[in-house]
Design a protein that fits this description.
The chain is of the alpha+beta class. The protein has a single domain, classed as NADH Oxidase, CATH 3.40.109. The protein is 47% helix and 12% strand. Strands 1-2-4-3 form a four-stranded antiparallel β-sheet, with helices on both faces. Helix 1 packs antiparallel against helix 5 and helix 2 runs antiparallel to helix 3. The longest helix is centred in the N-terminal third of the chain and has 22 residues. The radius of gyration is 18 Å and the shape is globular. It starts with 5 loop residues before the first helix and ends in an 11-residue tail after the last strand. The structure holds iron/sulfur cluster (SF4). Iron/sulfur cluster binds next to helix 4 and helix 5.
Length: 190
């Protein structure tokens, strides 16, 4: 008779859900029919590398020190992390929308500004449509996790550290840690 411990079966479950979330972020609708999103799954030793990078960010962002350190502790308690990112270039620059939502006079102006800005937590400025795609992809992913009863939370702090580590070739990255335990580590954190 084959047996699996609850730890083994829960590890399989959380890995499977992360894979489905990555797939859901890919099939989520994308504006203008162009997909500039990417995702990456992290577990094991890579979680500790990520947590250490978050703590390094805490040292250079003193106003957010507690937030980065708290979220790094959450990463260490997680089974895995899914990163989802997007690049920020204007879509279809050959047929520019020039909508103005980014604050620039045209898509061309935003594209030129992107070459001058040094990256901080993220690279920018970004086209509003790319940011919208990232939001829809994140929403699709976390809805799936929530529907399947896997604890999760979208974290800016993970994304900022992942960007420092060069884990995804994206301008803006968000991280979604996943956990299966008796109480979600991501809420009521004090
Ligand atoms: S947000 Fe900016 S770059 Fe994007 S379509 Fe509108 S004007 Fe162009």
């Amino acid at each position: 008779m084959a047996q699996m411990t609850s730890q083994q079966i829960e590890k399989n479950a959380v890995t499977m859900v992360a894979a489905l979330m990555a797939a859901g972020s890919r099939t989520a609708p994308k504006t203008r029919g162009i997909d500039s999103t990417a995702s990456l799954f992290l577990e094991g030793d890579d979680l500790e590398k990520l947590a250490l990078a978050m703590e390094r960010k805490a040292d250079i962002k003193p106003d957010y020190l507690a937030t980065f350190r708290r979220d790094a502790k959450n990463v260490r308690k997680s089974a895995c992390v899914l990163l989802i990112g997007v690049t920020g270039e204007p879509k279809k620059i050959e047929q520019p929308l020039d909508c103005g939502a980014c604050g620039y006079a045209s898509c061309e102006h935003l594209a030129k500004a992107r070459k001058k800005m040094p990256p901080r937590d993220f690279g920018g400025p970004v086209c509003m449509f790319q940011a919208m795609d990232l939001g829809i992809a994140l929403g699709s992913a976390v809805k799936l996790a929530a529907d399947l009863c896997i604890d999760n939370r979208i974290m800016y702090t993970i994304g900022a550290a992942a960007k420092d580590l060069g884990l995804l070739d994206s301008d803006v990255i968000m991280g979604i840690p996943l956990s299966i335990s008796g109480k979600s580590p991501y809420f009521d954190r004090g």
